[in-house]
Amino acid sequence: MIKKIRLVIADDHPMVIEGLANYFSAYDEIEVIATTNKISEIVKMVSILSPDILLMDYHFINEELTGLDICSEILVKYPCTKVIIISSFDDVSLIKKFIEVGPEDFSISRLASKMPWGIAVPDDAEHVMYVWFDALTNYISAIGYPDDTEKFNDWWPGIQVAGKDNLRQQSAMWQAMLMAVKLPPSKQVFINSFLTSGGQKMSKSLGNVISPDELVDKFSTDGARYLLASWNSFGEDIDITWENLTEKYNAELANGLGNLVSRVFRLAENYSSVELRNRGASGEVLDFTRTINEAMEGLRFSEAIEKIKAKIDWANKHIDETKLWDLVKTDKEKAGKVLEELLGIIVAVGESLESIMPETAGKILAGARAEKIVKGEGLFPRTK
After folding, report:
1. Domains 4-88 and 98-192 share a fold
2. How far apart are alpha carbons 232 and 209 in whole angstroms?
3. Tens digit of pLDDT for each residue in 24-61?
């Protein structure tokens, strides 16, 4: 059976149309029956053409205050037409093609009658500044441009992190703005993922909003940072719930990292007669640290944390396999070597976590490098 779909697209740039249509590549036939960049024409097109789907580019709807009202009207009057709002420029290849074809000039102002809350254009009371044009300049004004050249040059060019619905503004419009005033472009633009909860967009009406304050209250600042970073693969949405956050916290922080540090420090404290000649990291651990640094520099946080977690899991398993709690009583020389190896791993893990969990990493490193190691308080108590 041949699957067909008929589309009306609310945007008329050819790259946008191509990008939007690609979302329906599973269909045998895709018919774009009409396109428009005039919001006043959308309802009329839907009423006459009865498309299967009306596709509205996120940026197109976001720039027109009446866009959501139009969507609501269509959903009520024409229920056979499904309305989908997506970001057509969440694919880097499309941005490259957009630039190759040659983007048109873009307006940096909007009508004041439609956006009365905007910042006025100098000497033009009828227009206000386009919010993105005004907002993007904060990247450089916040670091001294144009008044503090020394401070600005210390920071710029920089690496930007932005949401995936901002790809067009960040990687095309903003770079063009920089070029226009003869400033160097951004070093890199990393496009981050969205946070969803239970497979749905977070919404107060749905009651599934998880606030940063709540995360910190339950898991601590470092715990919350770890949990979010460990799931963060750029370009892929992160789905979090209190259940999976709690499960991950208990498994990886309470039972994993916290348990490892507590076990090793307690054994080192209780059996201080075990001589620890060398607390430095072995060649294998140094190689591990280098791979973590490479992943972190590439902002591959989840990859780095997965490698750290694997090393922690190995260390906890090594304690069990060597029965270290017995070894410190029966063979102190061998126990000393095992403890040295474990402390080297703990130091490497602590150093690797400094940028993600600075407070926790500081405690780990201070404890492992102390002249006399003591167990101290637990890092991550279990939670429900």
Report:
1. yes
2. 18
3. 655 667 788 888 777 678 888 888 888 888 777 655 54
